[in-house]
Amino acid sequence: MSQSPLSTAIIGAGITGLSAAKALTDAGHRPTLFDKSRGVGGRLATRRADGGLSFDHGAPYVTASDPGFRDTLSDLVTAGAAGVWGPTGPWRGRKPWHVGHPGMSGLARELASGVDLISEAEIARLERADDLWHLSFTDNRAPVLAERVLLTVPAPQAQRLLGDHPLASRLATVEMAPCLTLMVAFDEQLGLLFDVLKNPGPELAWIIRNASKPGRLKLPEAWVAHASAEWSARHLETDKDGIARAMLALLPGAMEVDLPEPVYLAGHRWRYACTATPLGQASLADPETGLFMGGDWCLGPNAEDGWLSGQALAKAALESL
Questions:
Q1: In a 10 Å sphere around its CB, with 0-12 CB exposed, 13-18 middle and 19+ buried, how is residue 28 labelled?
Q2: Is residue 12 within 8 Å of residue 108, measured between CB atoms?
Q3: Rounded-to-integer distance, Cα 56 and Cα 94, Å
Q4: 191-199 long-range contacts, CB within 8 A, separation 24+
């Protein structure tokens, strides 16, 4: 085991974990982030393929109402990690749509700069003993000790890690919905008059021309589609190739166009994609044991909700010191 414990371990390097890490770092502390993936960002994700092709297969954009989050997005634009996307189509929100450069994952990478990150580190067990948290991993690496833990994974995963900790029962009311995603590219422009369709039918929640975002390749023409929560739940255990084929068959009717043969086709499963029933408060805390929990599941389905939860987590952790 580690000879000296970490002061603060943050489990999960999605938007909530990154938000908390930035706030703690700005306050003069040095947290360590752990994430099971190779990169950071969670659903601020970009899939890359040969020839420079990319797909923002998680959150397609982010918006901000909170002044602090607006300032953060402005800083990301200044740093070249984000830009404003103005898609054409019959549906648009009122707030500016911010996207990452060169993909949505660019937002997360910039937020993670200067933060201690240990990637491909999946936590198997989280136990409290001898006034410290013991983080055990799914591989054979040595466990890590920490004085306090900020747990920012999806609520169902947090429940499993917490076991019989008193805070685990507080997560019982949280409901998270899945989302199945299609990534498809065509070697010709489709000539459509829209870049975004929202709820084009009962099976699909979004259809997005990824190629219309700033800084993306125009050809091949990349598209991303997200299935509705209901369709996703019915097909959740379908293999990824089956997801891709089934969702591709939905596109011609929803887009009202005959599609050419794709040059790229892939599916993705987001098991905990969207907060359907949030906790109703920004974070949970047990300062006596040094445990703090948060995520977009606290407040709502948007990236901003996750960011605000991370800020609340950091504040609670700082107040406990």
A1: exposed
A2: no
A3: 21
A4: 192/255, 192/257, 193/88, 194/87, 194/88, 194/89, 194/90, 195/87, 195/88, 195/89, 196/60, 196/87, 196/88, 196/89, 196/91, 196/92, 197/89, 197/90, 197/91, 197/254, 197/255, 198/91, 199/228
From first to last of its 321 residues, the chain has per-residue pLDDT tens of: 446 899 999 999 999 999 999 999 999 999 999 999 998 999 999 999 999 999 999 999 999 999 999 999 999 999 999 999 999 877 666 789 999 999 999 999 999 999 999 999 999 999 999 999 999 999 989 999 999 999 999 999 999 999 989 999 999 999 999 999 999 999 999 999 999 999 999 999 999 999 999 999 999 999 999 999 999 999 999 999 999 999 999 999 999 999 999 999 999 999 999 999 999 999 999 999 999 999 999 999 999 999 999 999 999 999 998
Write down the pTM of the prediction.
0.96
Structure tokens at 116: 């201690």
